[in-house]
Amino acid sequence: MNKFGAGLLTGVIGTIAAAAATAVTFHKVAVEPIEQEEAKFEETERNSARKAAQSHGNRF
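Predicted structure:
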């Protein structure tokens, strides 16, 4: 029975570690590039609005 408990505990810990690694990898590969792209777009939009306001008055 002692080996069964140790094997079960090892399996649970391994499963939790695999799930955590998957979550971190997904965030780095899929979520982070989208967040960076949105931040760059917002910065570009802000700069564009400021330049438009300088040269043509209000943008909206």
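Summary: Residues 2-56 form the longest helix (55 residues).
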